[in-house]
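Weekly puzzle thread! Below is a chain. First person to post its structure in token form gets bragging rights.
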Amino acid sequence: MGRLSRLLLIKLPLAFFVLTFLWALILRWCPVYVTPLMIQRTIEYRGDKNYHIHKTWVPYKRISPEMARAVIASEDNLFDKHSGFDWKAIKQAQKEYESGKRRRGGSTISQQTAKNVFLLPHRSMVRKGFEAYFTVLIEFLWSKERIMEVYLNVAEMGKGIFGVEAAAEHHFGTSAAKLTRRQSCLIAACLPNPQKRNAGKPSSYISRRASDIASLESKIGYPDWVYHK
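Winning reply:
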């Protein structure tokens, strides 16, 4: 029993850390072609013959800077300044949740990337714990540009649409490199609920939200890497 306890308390956590560290280290350079959410969606829509996963990995240098500007403005204003967590936003989200007026989460782009790449989207305290762990891991191993590159390539951006290249082609008939500010803001405006919102055929709410994002962009300072410098 003593040896089993030592195995459970020391060796298994150590093995988990080593394996996940190596996994995240490999993904520092390698494209992420499949995510848990893609697999889940494929299972969910297995009876729908019209459902297909559309995705094309592109390096950040082939993504319009307007797209990074838009998601930073809409999802995580302090992306380049924090170390994975926006504690002020987390506290505000908690207050809104407790008062029954919660409108948005406190998750940063780093947290969303960790969730998208490594975990299923189920809500639980255990999953949030793993999300925090993987967030710390990628913040330590990856650059901010790499986190953004992965985020923009794996985020769900429509029904069966994953990544900005597929979204640009599906919604606007163009490439990620040629996205305009308006198009980028429309995609960003749909991110909270991409299966029900359509950037190519925006509702009046999405159109207004995209305009708000564009206005907010002028108030945020962006690092040089956003502009491929």
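Puzzle host: Confirmed. Bonus trivia for everyone else. The chain has a mean pLDDT of 92.
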